Each structure stands twice: as structure tokens, then as C-alpha cells.
Amino acid sequence: MQGKIVKGIAGFYYVNVVESGLYECKAKGVFRKDKLKPLVGDDVKIDVLDEAKKKGNITEILPRKNELIRPAVANIDQALVVFAVARPKPHLNLLDRFLVMMEAKGIPLILCFNKTDIAKDTSIEELLSIYSTGGYQVIFTSTVEEENIDELKKLLKGRLTAVAGPSGVGKSSIINRIQSNVNMQTGTISEKIERGKHTTRHSQLIMIDNESYIMDTPGFSSLYTNEFEKEELKHYFPEFAPYEGTCRFHGCDHVHEPGCAVRAALEEGKIAESRYQNYLEMYQELKDKRRY
Ligand SMILES: Nc1nc2c(ncn2[C@@H]2O[C@H](COP(=O)(O)OP(=O)(O)OP(=O)(O)O)[C@@H](O)[C@H]2O)c(=O)[nH]1
Ligand SMILES: [Mg+2]
Ligand SMILES: [Zn+2]
């Protein structure tokens, strides 16, 4: 039988098989020698051990379309990257790292800034100007005031979407707003450190309708990527693309080379300062291959 892993907790994988339901499965040792760990989102083959108790064994993981490390998920069509406009205030360095990772993997994304009900007047405009120059699809939501929840739902139609972002930004709250099959637990923000408390501990795949699925995931607070060379990094900043090939030097990395068109665009305000600074920081890390 073939099914999809919808949840994994403490060595058990919950595999949904269309028409016959949910099976609690263990992964046999065969994967360990290939260093392959089943992920939520994986399509797998299972042997049913006990049909009445719905227990089985995963015998094979089918080839993955893609996989992410943080959050650990496989076979997604797109990512819904959620940050809050406030409480916690958006950590743009972490966001830019995440965007780079998704660009590098070629996974389409929707960038969602939640909690517009507690936004300061300027923050929405600022965020919009920083991220719309990169050509990102940006949506501003509030689960409290139901702002743009229907619009967001439309963007999820017909796809398997993984939600990703720091703890406390409202990922689970958004999921609760867009479907009524499952109620995810939501947490509070710490008064002291203004951060979330990692309420969601395990990734879980939830059906919105027959053709649309959403995956809730635990929040993450750091991201380091060294899966590519520093020369590649510039390709993962979409707002640099119009200037590619127009710098004085062929193969310009837009760092300190004279006659750099990207830096000229930065001076003219056509590229956001924070995006460029985060580019430089990641570039330097890739150069040093330091661990972040
Ligand atoms: N003001 C406001 N608060 C919100 C909004 N959405 C969620 N919250 C609150 O933010 C807190 C955290 O929400 P969660 O949905 O648990 O956040 P999460 O991203 O799932 O966090 P983790 O599971 O820890 O990764 C809760 O107190 C929510 O009620 C919103 O649109 N506006
Ligand atoms: Mg959560
Ligand atoms: Zn340049």
C-alpha cells in the first residue's frame, strides 16, 4: 500500500492511505544504513501488520521532489513563510536567510506578515517596500481581525504548502483560521523576551480540502546554509537580477568591486539596505565557511 506521512512523533510515523485511513507505522532499519530519515510529506510504501489496529511498517520511501531541513519536510509545492509585523518584531536577517534557502532549492514561496492589527503605521509600508522589490508575493494578515484570510486561502488552493517561520508569529493560528478539520494548539508570547514558546513541536500535514494541504511546523530561530559557494549567493537575491551582467567586471560579486551596478542601485534606493547588508553577511560566512 502507498500513503503519505502526515505526522511523525517519537519514532512513529502516521501514514495516511487514501480510502483506507491512517496507519501508525515504524520505519524499518533499512533506511538507517542509507542515512535516510522519513519526513512528513514523504510518499511511502507500507506493509500492514494489523488492519484492525491500523499498524504497519514503512518499507520504502519514494523519491522526493524536494526536502527542507528547517522545518524538516518533504515534497512541498510551496512555502508560506510567516513572520509577524510585531510581537515578535520581524528578524529580517533570519527571513533573508530563509528566502535564500528557498531560492536555492527553487521552491516557490508566499511571504506572509501576520498580526497587522498590532502593526505600527510605518512597519507595513517598510516591509512591503523591502520585499516587493525582490518580486516576492507579499500578503499581510491578521487572524484576530480576519484580514486577508480568504485571499490567503486562495493562494493555497490545489497545493501542498508548508508553513515556516519563527515561534510565536501565528503559524498555527493562521492554520486554524483557514480550515476547521483540525484545531492546532496555539501559544502565547513571553512578556519578557517577546518571543513565542515553541508551542508546535512536530510537523503535521492537514487537509484543507481534497486537493489542498497545509503543513504546520515548529518555529525555528536560526538558519545557516553552506550548501553552495559564495559566487552563487547573488543569484538567490531576485532584486539583483536586472543588474546582472551590467557591472564593470565580469563575474562581479557586488561586494567591493568598482563600477558595480548592484551597489549603484543600492545608492539610488532601488535595492533595500537591509537586504544588501544581509547579502554581505551571508557572503562573508560562505567565504569563511564559518558555522552560524
Ligand atoms: N495580535 C495578534 N496576535 C496573534 C495573531 N495571530 C496569532 N496571534 C497570537 O500570537 C501567539 C502565537 O500564536 P501561534 O499561532 O501559537 O504561533 P506559532 O507561529 O504557531 O508559534 P510556534 O508553534 O511556537 O512556532 C498567540 O497568542 C496568538 O493568539 C494576530 O493576527 N494578531
Ligand atoms: Mg505553532
Ligand atoms: Zn556588481
How would you characterize this protein structure?
This protein is of the alpha/beta class and 292 residues long. It folds into three domains: 2-63, Beta Barrel (OB fold (Dihydrolipoamide Acetyltransferase, E2P)), CATH 2.40.50; 68-216, 3-Layer(aba) Sandwich (Rossmann fold), CATH 3.40.50; 230-291, Ribonucleotide Reductase Protein R1, domain 1, CATH 1.10.40.50. It is 25% helix and 25% strand. Helix 2 (92-105) crosses helix 8. The chain is globular and about 70 Å long. Bound molecules: guanosine-5'-triphosphate, magnesium ion and zinc ion (ZN). The site of magnesium ion has 5 residues, from helix 5.
Biggest β-sheet description: 6 strands, mixed
- Total number of beta strands: 13
Helix content: 25-40%
Strand content: 25-35%
Work out the count of structural domains.
3
- Poorly predicted spans: none
What is the alpha-carbon Rg in Å?
21 Å
The H-level CATH homologous superfamily of the largest domain, spelled out, is P-loop containing nucleotide triphosphate hydrolases
What is the end-to-end distance?
42 Å
Mean pLDDT: 93
SSE ordering: EEEHEEEEEHEHEHEHEEHHH
CATH architecture of the largest domain: 3-Layer(aba) Sandwich
Shape type: globular
Strand arrangement across the biggest beta sheet: 10-9-8-11-13-12
In terms of quaternary structure, the protein is: single chain
Sheet/helix structural class: alpha/beta
Can you list the ligands bound to this structure?
A: guanosine-5'-triphosphate, magnesium ion, zinc ion
